[in-house]
Amino acid sequence: MRKENHVELKVNIEERFTGDFFIAPFILIPFIENAFKHVSKQKDKFNWIKMKLWFNNRQLHFEISNSLSAEHTSSPAIVNYSGIGLKNVKRRLDLIYRGLYKLDIDNRDEQFRVRLDLQLPEQKTAEPEAASLQYSIG
Q1: Is 89 a domain residue?
Q2: Nearest CA-CA partner of 28 in 121, 127, 118
Q3: Phi–psi pair at 85, nearest 5 degrees
Q4: Closest listed residue to residue 14, CA positions, set 50, 49, 52
Q5: What pLDDT, in 10s, does the model give residues 24-38?
Q6: Distance, CA of 74 to CA of 129 (rounded, Å)
Q7: Going by DSSP bridges, is the β-strand pair 111-119/101-108 parallel, antiparallel, or unpaired?
Q8: Is the entire prediction scored with pTM above 0.85?
Q9: Most buried residue, 41, 74, 78, 118, by most Cβ within 10 Å?
Q10: Tens-place pLDDT, residues 93-137
């Protein structure tokens, strides 16, 4: 990947989970968009984004982190996690997966990190709702 300045992108997706599961749309995308939007753009330092997705039984684990510039580490939207995208995804998680997720957002040492652990509910044999996406792995 190349932006105005060089950014290293590392993606690790482990495909150990087999079976069908459903995840509501736009749960992970805002975190990925934020990493690209807020990644550091320094010429004299290493700029990076790291993303990892893995499964443990019916639990999805997602982690994404990115380097931050000094101006981003003091930004109120970053420090207070008050960006509209983050608020919206938290609201969606509460509405769709209440009690089935853990979300940690951390900003320190010129790094922004998001970790989401999401328990994937058992699916009924009926057709999935129109608002859901189906993924088959394995």
Answers
A1: yes
A2: 118
A3: -60, -45
A4: 52
A5: 988 999 999 999 998
A6: 41
A7: antiparallel
A8: no
A9: 118
A10: 999 999 999 999 998 888 999 999 999 887 654 444 444 445 545
